[in-house]
Amino acid sequence: MPREPRMDAALVLDRDRVVWIREGRRVRRGDMIAIGKAEDGSEGIYVHSLEDDDDTGEFRFMTSQVSREKPIDYSLMAQILIDERDRGGYPILVTGPALVHSRARADMVWFIENHFVGALLAGNAVAVHDIEASIYGTTLGMTQTGVASSGGHGLHMRAINQVRAAGSIAAAVERGIVKNGIMHALVTHKVPFVLTGSIRDDGPLPEVITDNLEAQDAMRAHTKKATLAVLVATALHAIATGNMLPAFVTNEDGSLRELPTICVDSSEFVVSKLKDRGTHQAFGVVTNAQDFMHILRLYVEREITARTTHYT
Amino acid sequence: MPREPRMDAALVLDRDRVVWIREGRRVRRGDMIAIGKAEDGSEGIYVHSLEDDDDTGEFRFMTSQVSREKPIDYSLMAQILIDERDRGGYPILVTGPALVHSRARADMVWFIENHFVGALLAGNAVAVHDIEASIYGTTLGMTQTGVASSGGHGLHMRAINQVRAAGSIAAAVERGIVKNGIMHALVTHKVPFVLTGSIRDDGPLPEVITDNLEAQDAMRAHTKKATLAVLVATALHAIATGNMLPAFVTNEDGSLRELPTICVDSSEFVVSKLKDRGTHQAFGVVTNAQDFMHILRLYVEREITARTTHYT
Amino acid sequence: MPREPRMDAALVLDRDRVVWIREGRRVRRGDMIAIGKAEDGSEGIYVHSLEDDDDTGEFRFMTSQVSREKPIDYSLMAQILIDERDRGGYPILVTGPALVHSRARADMVWFIENHFVGALLAGNAVAVHDIEASIYGTTLGMTQTGVASSGGHGLHMRAINQVRAAGSIAAAVERGIVKNGIMHALVTHKVPFVLTGSIRDDGPLPEVITDNLEAQDAMRAHTKKATLAVLVATALHAIATGNMLPAFVTNEDGSLRELPTICVDSSEFVVSKLKDRGTHQAFGVVTNAQDFMHILRLYVEREITARTTHYT
Amino acid sequence: MPREPRMDAALVLDRDRVVWIREGRRVRRGDMIAIGKAEDGSEGIYVHSLEDDDDTGEFRFMTSQVSREKPIDYSLMAQILIDERDRGGYPILVTGPALVHSRARADMVWFIENHFVGALLAGNAVAVHDIEASIYGTTLGMTQTGVASSGGHGLHMRAINQVRAAGSIAAAVERGIVKNGIMHALVTHKVPFVLTGSIRDDGPLPEVITDNLEAQDAMRAHTKKATLAVLVATALHAIATGNMLPAFVTNEDGSLRELPTICVDSSEFVVSKLKDRGTHQAFGVVTNAQDFMHILRLYVEREITARTTHYT
Q1: pLDDT tens digits, chain A, 312 residues: what are they?
Q2: Euclidean distance between CA atoms B231 and B233, whole angstroms
Q3: Helix/strand/coil for A245
């Protein structure tokens, strides 16, 4: 048995043939040190761990699958998005209102206009804030720079009233009440959307499905066709959608591929929870929703340019 | 004084010159509505807020109102709970399923049995996990010590099926299918509960109100009578309830007292969000739901003993 | 292949021998349903998962090891604490200042007085706030109920000055300047403590070791004897200690037992991080530090009573 | 005007009637110290704060100053960075290792190369991971796509050993051992850096200052010259630096401007804590460190292009 064991330190054999564990800074020239280069014990040190029968024998760290400290592979995600679009896939975008509170609204419109969104699943608030931004230039009364505007707390209610007076979001777009933004892009590009209600809703807007079972059926009509899911800044909708997603997509030749699921949230909690429920294939991005959309768009644009250049 | 006050709603004057607070969707053509456009009260509505009288100009730190590093005054909360119970108040308890995943279930039953709960507002999952615990001894397949049981992932579905076969939760209690726990205590002690649905729900259980507008109305029937609100481990239900709560309770002599709101969550985010929406009087507790319930019960028991001793 | 696959739903065989996945609420009397009772596929349904070669075949969820939604086994922790004390173990307590901001100070004193602490490892702030609480009744200027006191922002500096004038914490205790609290209990009961410095420190207090390598050596002198570690509300000290802890303790008969490590934090992040670094045997508690200490003490007291009763 | 202002320190009048701000440990017997006991300025010290002039009495929401749901004004931050660079300001960059785990390393190099960094303040880990990335292509054994590499857990130790063998980071750069990255850019562009130690450190690297008081002095040498501070993904270093920063910078004409402080973290907690300690002028960005650096660079590049275009 080594004396004074700890991690991140060296095995030192002293003159009495006793093994000590010593921090690097305590090791001296001439000390006998055990050196292991192979992880499987074939060369030098064999690691035996009592826990986890399924262990491959290797000592590891940084193995948790969701962490704000892991690199985010935007390049890979950009490739997946473009591949799905170009093969005629059905990507569903599921989002919470944090995305609309921000610059990300313009990026989202870009994704819709460039055919990266097969369907949008969201709640009342996403549409309300987006339409408030279109009509009044604010979201929940905040300007684009995050400053509360005078009287701003009532603007989302006035936005709801304008749409209800028009009869529907589609009608409000057609009449020019809603001139830009996410809902405008969806209506204009005929991308289907499902707005599901919750007990937190003001209004709600006319298209919102207030019965949860009807809402689940409406969502299901899209998830069963999904070939890719991007879930941004929403615990409720992300987990509801995760429950409905197939694990695999059937290729044309009958073989299967895993349905890629990108889950973005500002904490590890939601993504880990999604995995806990059995959505194995989710890969998690712990970041701010608006930053995610902006960088993802940037990488998609670069990748499109690279592919265009390459093929010509 | 307006009747049935809440936030995010309109002031409506009826034919008897009584002012009511009404959600936008309840306002009808021809109703007399108070309209305020200026924020300073110069036009229409003057807002009087009691808060922020204590701004003394002093340099301060640790002034953020919600922090895991602030002491939690369980003693004061225990006094408020007992006072409300003893004066015949109407405390509403709003909770998420994290509370049922745990030992806190027994503490919750104690609060119900000892008349500290006027009504319970929750979602499908709270009732499902509680009933799974009663029938199978697990919550989402985990035993009380947090270990996943073999085949446990299906037990909540089996619990739902048993209640649906019985016809209702109340029937399942009466037939002895559900023998203990929160729902059992509510049914046995005739404490009303509202279970509202969401798009995440399995099942749902028979009593769950799946339409959100109906669900809001059912919640509202209790929040308008509330004299105290305790919101534990739920963002969705806490904020939905916060939207509906009056800021003040009218005392018998016509004077007002602030409606105390206790909001418990494992992160600062939900409580801060509740305050951001204008629920000034919320005081926040950043802790684990089961630990909160356990210590609160302990303090309530001590306070009851102290009062009994004192008065005899 | 089943049609419309999703999780949490039933396998239904229709008249054309096609398998559909259907939510429970869509299943009708008379439908042909696949039923599986054994998890290993021996009866009914065999689960095949492509991911994770190490999978035991069972479909699982709630398998992440650290979650605020998992039950906390205070009973088991209480038993471990008492067992270690009674077998003459060397439990080390590592804590951050959040514990001192609060009621937990009294509980901590109780643990020291009842011989549950072999050594305390902490930073300057823990001692500063504890001594401020003893002299002025505040922590960082906040009263015990969390209210900022007038002039309170300077009290921790005044506390430091008083101890520096006395020459050491021990001297300040002996001279009656520090009359109660954690540092008082440590000095009075001759429990060793290590206070390590950081670049955030005010002061620091005289006993604080400002050189990090010296500080590591001082901590190491205790960790190498440790038979139990309790890490509360500190990322810096918890991970520094985790790096130094042995994974096993040698029993008297030469056999090994895992060194139990209890890690308490208000978020999953620190505990997961500790595990990521290879501290396998850590078990995580996601809660508020003061609530943890209070309930743990309660369970230890109950267990002591139970053992006393049992053995007499 | 006092010289070298910072928080949590004393006002000392020297023989030339100049007021200096001095940490308690630098005050000597006989020094003339300003003492204030009343908070309202009636006795000793009158505190004048510019903030809170905008409290208009208006009912507001979304008023909490730090939230993941607030828009991030990258455009304004980019303008501030360029303005400070172009007026010859002294921007200090303070960062934790999460920034190096990732793509952000390349962006950081860009900022150094383009003269946006007056000095870098960080801990041992930032330099270790950066140098590991340069020598082995991994950070804590993870590849750039976040995959654990075989044997990777030891690479940061091997990186430390290589630098220690070279004698210093600067020597390792000169000898071509470290060929790229943050430390390489700092050495090559002669940008000063301070690496301060902590009890969590492996190694440490030769330049790391292991004594905390010396480390504070070394940091202070830069903070007292700072005209802008950017604090990314570090609680320890951000708060230590926040303690040392002046609130104002003196313009050439003797007038004052607030010292802008940009604090980036993945949770609201650190930024709120910084504000709680009195760093009023901090503005908080709740996002992922690598995403922040990438977008900030993008906006700075755009702004530079816009200014160039505009002025020609």
Answers
A1: 888 888 878 899 999 999 999 988 888 889 999 988 777 777 778 776 554 444 343 444 334 456 666 667 899 899 999 999 999 999 999 999 888 876 789 999 999 999 999 999 999 999 999 999 999 998 877 777 667 777 787 899 899 999 999 999 999 999 999 999 999 999 999 999 999 999 999 889 999 999 999 999 999 999 999 999 999 989 899 989 988 988 888 888 988 888 889 999 887 777 777 766 555 556 788 888 889 999 999 999 999 999 988 665
A2: 7
A3: coil
Q: Which two tokens stand for residue C39?
A: 């998890």
Contact A202 B8 (CB under 8 A): yes
Residue B4: DSSP 8-state? S
Question: In whole angstroms, what is the distance from residue B2 CA to residue B45 CA?
Answer: 13
Looking at D61-103, list the stretches that DSSP marks H as alpha helix, in order from N- to C-terminal side: 74-86
- Amino acid making up residue C65: Q
Amino acid at D167: G
- Tally of CA atoms within 13 A in the half-sphere of A114 that contains its CB: 14
What residues in D contact A292, CB-CB < 8 Å? 291
Contacts of A213 in chain B (CB under 8 A): 197, 210
d(CA C81, CA C115): 10
Omega before residue D204 within 30° of 0, cis:
yes
Q: Alpha-carbon distance B21 to A310, whole Å?
A: 64
Residue type, C21: I
Burial readout B188-219 (b: 16 or more C-beta within 10 A, e: otherwise): eeebebbbbbbbbbbbbbbebbbbbbebbebb
Q: Determine the distance in angstroms separating the CA of D198 from the nearest CA of chain C, rounded to an integer.
A: 6
Residue C267 in tokens: 């978020």
**CB of A5 less than 8 A from some CB of C:** yes
The closest CB to that of C244, out of A6, A243, A281, belongs to: A6
Closest CA to D264 of D217, D296, D307, D303: D296
Q: How far is CA A51 from the centre of its chain?
A: 32
Confidence (pTM): 0.86
Chain B contacts in chain D segment 49-78 (CB below 8 A): 49, 52, 55-59, 61-64, 67-68
Closest-CA residue in chain C for D216?
Answer: C199
Residue in B134, B135, B126, B121 with CA at minimum distance from that of residue B101: B126
Inter-chain touch C224–A4, beta carbons under 8 Å = yes
Beta-carbon separation of A71 and D101 below 8 A: yes
Does A62 contact D161 at a Cβ distance shorter than 8 Å? Answer: no
Whether residues A145 and D287 touch (CB distance < 8 A) is answered with no
Q: Do B276 and D62 touch (CB under 8 A)?
A: yes
User: Which residues of chain B does A211 touch, with a Cβ-Cβ cutoff of 8 Å?
Assistant: 210-212
**CA–CA gap between residue D238 and residue D121 (Å, rounded):** 9
Q: Using the beta-carbon criterion (under 8 Å), do B151 and C38 form an inter-chain contact?
A: yes
First to last CA, chain A: 65
- Suggest the residue from D22, D212, D245, D279 to mutate for an interface test with chain C (most C CBs closer than 10 A): D212
**Cα angle for residues B221, B226, B230 (degrees, 5° grid):** 115
Neighbours of chain A (3+ CB pairs under 8 A): B, C, D
ipTM of this predicted structure: 0.88
Pick from D205, D201, D221: nearest CA to D121: D221
Judged on CB neighbours under 10 Å (0-12, 13-18, 19+), C192 is: middle
Chain C environment of B202 (Cβ under 8 Å): 8, 23-24
> Which among B69, B166, B146 is positioned nearest to B101, based on CA atoms?
B146
Contacts by B29-36, CB closer than 8 A, 24 or more apart = B34/B10
**Residues of C whose CB is below 8 A from D201:** 212
